[in-house]
Amino acid sequence: MKEAVHNSVGFRIARTANRINQAITTLLNEEGIAPEQRILLEILSSCEKANQTTLAAMLNKSPTTVSRTLDSLEKKALIIKKEVLGDKRANLIEVTAEGKAMLERTEAIVNAFRQNLSNLFTPEEKQTLFALLEKIS
């Protein structure tokens, strides 16, 4: 049974994803932000206007999960939610000045982490990895 688990593609991918997430979490914790929060801020800063439904689809996360993450960002004053006129259930989300400052403070950390991870592969290996991941996603 143990052999079957270790030879499972799903197990290997999940284990690798967990290790990557733990590593970036450790780095970002010093700044007081979780990776899920940081990625949402990054996406929001590059979007003109985004709502929770769009964000959930982009991240392949449930709307409830995205809502909880946005609530955490709002409590930290990193985003503000604005009601959409005519639809009290819908919100447009904007990054605050504090949120932009957080992105700037953590940019070097995230870029270095991404670069170090990328440097583990040759360009050809990275292209193969992306193709394989795309095949199973």
TrEMBL record:
DNA-binding as UniProt keyword: yes
Domain HTH marR-type: residue ranges: 6-137
Keywords: DNA-binding, Transcription, Transcription regulation
SMART domains registered for this protein in UniProt: HTH_MARR (SM00347)
One Pfam family matching this protein: MarR
Top-rank taxon, per record: Bacteria
Protein name: MarR-like regulatory protein
Family matches, as InterPro entries: HTH_MarR-typ, WH-like_DNA-bd_sf, WH_DNA-bd_sf
Species assigned in the record: Sulfurospirillum halorespirans DSM 13726
GO MF assignments: DNA binding; DNA-binding transcription factor activity
